[in-house]
Amino acid sequence: MDPVVFFVVLASLYGVIYFFDRFFKSCMHYPYDAFLQNTGVTVNFMSLNWHTTAFNRTLLRWGSAGNSFTRKVMLTSFNVGVLVAFSLLPIGLILLFVTIFSGAESDPVSAAASASPLGVPVQLEILLPGVNLPLEEIGYYITTLVLCMVVHELGHALAAVLEDVPVTGFGIKFFFCLPLAYTELSHDHLNSLRWIRKLRIMCAGIWHNVVFAGVCYLLISTVGITMSPLYAYNEHVVVTELTRKSPLRGERGLQVDNQITQVNGCPVTSEDSWQACLQSTLKLKPGYCVSADFVQLNDESSAISHHSIDGQLQCCDELNPNVSCFEVAEDANGNVPVELPQHVCLNVRRTLEEVTEHCSSGVCAEGFCLRPLMRNITAIMTFKRQNGRGEKLPPVIYVGHPWDVTRTVEVSAFVPRYSFPKAAWPDAWLLLLKYNVVFSVGLSLINAIPCFGFDGAHITSTVIHSFLVGRVDQHAKRDLISVIITSVGSLLFGLAMLKVAWLSFLRPLL
Question: Region 429-442: what's the mean pLDDT?
Answer without folding.
Answer: 94
